[in-house]
Amino acid sequence: MATVFGRLIVKANHEVIQVVSRSIANARQLAEELGCRFSDNPAILDTTADMYVVAMTDIALNEMHESYFLGDKIIVHTAGAVSKDILKAVSSRYGIIYPLQSLRKENRELHQDIPLLIDGNTAEVTNLIEQFALTLSSMVASVNDDQRLKLHVAAVIVSNFTNHLYSLAADYCNKESLDFKMLQPLIEETALRLRFHLPGEMQTGPAIRKDITTLDKHLNILSQHPELKKMYLKMTDSIMNP
Question: What sign does the CA torsion over 195, 197, 198, 199 have?
Answer without folding.
Answer: negative
